[in-house]
Design a protein that fits this description.
Length: 229
């Protein structure tokens, strides 16, 4: 039952993406690899969730990148190796300084599900940085993973902390690169700001899928600008 709900939520996210970004998703449906990134900015960390969905026509190529021994199953070592490969193709910068990404969660569905065109590979990375100064900041993300067969989405998650406010998002034409401008205002003494605890494993629960769904939907109303690459 839980697995069925999870898969339904994943498909709803893709359906909403179809409504918001029809050109990208229509192309993805058979011959492209859709890579949707959701970026959550916190006062001392960034969380990056990626939902990767290969179309039917490219599924075998994606599986070949993961299932190195061609035994029809994805082992823990193969999953870890693919996460490393993906991480090397990601560049995350805060105010121009590179951030070191660390894998915090992953979920790879079986190859037979990927071949249907609806299977979703989920990866979560995090990066810790030092205290932010009050005022404006810029976070940039570049995704160079399997560029010859991929389409991309990049969007900022709604901040969980009142001290962080997203002010503007800019993306290049295919959304393989994006910039998120935000402001940080430290909490003044005597004023309480509540926020839930840091949670790992977005890729393993419904909340992560709902956040992706809502984030893609917010693109309808989000003020964005194009950036050149």
């Amino acid at each position: 039952m839980v697995e069925a709900v999870n898969r339904t939520l994943c498909r709803l996210a893709l359906l909403l993406a179809l409504l918001v970004f029809p050109s990208a998703v229509f192309a993805h449906r058979d011959d492209q690899y859709l890579q949707a990134s959701l970026v959550a900015i916190e006062p001392n960390a960034v969380r990056l969730q990626l939902n990767l969905t290969p179309g039917i026509a490219v599924a075998e190529r994606v599986i070949a990148e993961i299932d190195h021994d061609r035994d029809g199953a994805i082992s823990e070592n193969e999953a870890a190796a693919y996460a490393d490969s993906l991480q090397r193709d990601l560049t995350l910068r805060m105010d121009g300084r590179n951030l070191q990404l660390k894998l915090t969660a992953s979920e790879l569905v079986p190859p037979e599900e990927l071949r249907t065109g609806a299977g979703i590979i989920q990866m979560e990375f995090s990066a810790i940085f030092g205290p932010l100064a009050a005022g404006p900041h810029s976070l940039t993300l570049e995704n160079r993973h399997l560029t010859t067969m991929s389409v991309y989405l990049i969007n900022a998650a709604q901040p969980r902390f009142a001290t962080v406010q997203i002010t503007r998002q800019k993306r290049n034409q295919n959304q393989s690169a994006g910039e998120i401008e935000f402001s940080f205002q430290p909490v003044r003494r005597g004023i309480a700001v509540s926020a839930g605890p840091l949670e790992s494993g977005w890729a393993k629960n419904n909340k992560g899928k709902l956040e992706l769904l809502l984030s893609i939907g917010l693109c309808l109303f989000d003020h964005t600008e194009a950036i050149s690459k």
